[in-house]
Amino acid sequence: MGSKEKCTICSNKITLRFNPMEEWSIKGPLCGDCYSKKIDEFYPGDHIRVNKEE
């Protein structure tokens, strides 16, 4: 049972769905690659994950 959704930006099949931030003015789901690109575009700099399992 895979998702049949497609990314709003690149139209690739979504394996893990991400919702865009409101300030991005994007309506619809994003794939992980496009979500990461938008995060980097809107929030430049180093991103450190703080909730990693140890």
Report on the structure:
The protein has 54 residues and is mainly alpha-helical. Helices cover 20% and strands 0% of the residues. It has one domain. It has one helix at residues 32-42. The termini are far apart. The model has no long low-confidence stretch (mean pLDDT 87).
Principal-axis shape: globular
Give the number of DSSP strands: 0
Largest sheet: none
Find the structural class using helix and strand composition: mainly alpha
- Mean pLDDT level: 87
**Alpha plus pi helix count:** 1
Helix and strand run: H
Low-confidence stretches: none
Distance from first to last alpha carbon? 31 Å
Radius of gyration equals 13 Å
What is the helix content? 10-25%
**What amount of the residues lies in strands?**
under 5%
How many domain regions?
1
